Amino acid sequence: MADTQVPSLDELPKVAENLKDQLENFKTTGLNPTETEVKVVLPDEDDIKTEKAQQAILKGVELFDHNNLKHTDPEVKVVLPSSDDILTEKTQQAVLKGVEGFDPKNLKHAETKESNSLPTKEVLDQEKQV
For the residues of 18-55, what is the DSSP string, one character each? Predict the structure, then answer.
């Protein structure tokens, strides 16, 4: 044990006389009454159970003995695409590249010509009569 020394009366801090008189003659009747409010909410039984369960899980993880595990070799399954899949993808990429890089300025101007003309009103009237 540590040695604790009790200070002597001379070593204690001194209080001024006027302050000492004020403290001794202080009257509590002039104080306003107040209600005390408890602002610290203690946990209920469910909170305590939940916290204990979480602590038990953490303790189980911390104290887990990895020597109980069995060794396994992982199987690496790599499925490579077939040559047909590679060829299909290359052609799709070539088509996309051609569409993306297409320059419409290289097109020639063309005139559209209607080869299938619509019948006139007279032809329609003749067909209705027949």
Answer: HHHHHHHT--GGGSPP------PPPP-HHHHHHHHHHH
Q: 43 with 51: CB under 8 angstroms?
A: yes
Instruction: Write the CB contacts of 81 (distance below 8 Å, at least 6 apart in sequence).
Output: 89
Confidence of residue 56 (pLDDT cuts 50, 70, 90): very high
* H helix intervals, 1-130: 17-24, 45-62, 83-100, 121-129
pLDDT digits (tens, 9 = 90+) for 17-29: 888 888 888 888 8
Q: What is the Cα–Cα distance from 80 to 53, expressed in whole angstroms? A: 47
Q: Is the pLDDT of residue 1 over 70?
A: no
Those residues whose C-beta lies under 8 Å from the C-beta of residue 51, and which sit 6 or more positions away, are 43
What's at 15, amino acid-wise?
V
What's the mean pLDDT in 82-92? 94
How many Å from the N-terminal Cα to the C-terminal Cα in the chain?
A: 130
Answer yes or no: is pLDDT of 49 > 90.
Answer: yes
